[in-house]
Amino acid sequence: MALAPKFAGQKLAAGVSPKTIHTLELYLDYVCPFSAKMFSTIYNDVFPIVEKKYEGKVQFIFRNQIQPWHPSSTLTHEAALAVLEAAPDKFYPFSNALFLNQKEYFDVSVVNESRNKTYERLAKLADSVGADQKEIYGMLEVADKPGEGGSLNIGNKVTDDLKLLVKAARLTGVHVSPTVLFNGVVEGSISSSFTKDQWSDWLEKNVV
Strand pairing partners for 27? Predict the structure, then answer.
């Protein structure tokens, strides 16, 4: 799938050039333990291999895969979109921080706090990677007063972008996380249990 310029901060690539290169799309959910495992391996172990051996040949794209059976999933992805818009270069560090602290956003951890309170904690986490806490919270906060025309479902400043990303995932037919697409096609052989060595072998066979 093509990547809209407004979401360019989602791209993780070494030595990008105008030529067509291989693309690995990672459909991940911030409150999914298996997504966390895959992200950690790719971010810490696999991408350094790509930088060294496959520069200009393959890129990774983070695809936000919201799992509606985890209610706080939406809130964490909204926070990531706020960071993506406000400080694109902090998107991957923030994603890493979210995965490292994902248990703080599991059902039991958020069930007794308000939505805006969760946003406050997410904005504070964004601040820890260099994004502006006040700006991020301002993009996430939901007002407690009706909007224009008396609307009560007013959303926040990232709602429209969130809708676009949900639509993109639905169009590909992706259901669970993590799911990996290689050049637009689901790559079923890749799982969250893939080790650094398994990724290295896979890249050697598939990226030329």
Answer: 63, 179
- Residue 21 and residue 57 in contact, taking contact as beta carbons nearer than 8 Å: yes
Distance CA 137, CA 126 (A): 9
Are the beta carbons of 92 and 33 closer than 8 angstroms? Answer: no
**Model confidence pTM above 0.85:** yes
- pLDDT tens sequence for the chain (208 residues): 556 456 668 878 776 555 668 899 999 999 999 999 999 999 999 999 999 999 988 999 999 999 999 999 999 999 999 999 999 999 999 999 999 999 999 999 999 999 999 999 999 999 999 999 999 999 999 999 998 889 999 999 999 999 999 998 899 999 899 999 998 889 999 999 999 999 999 999 998 7
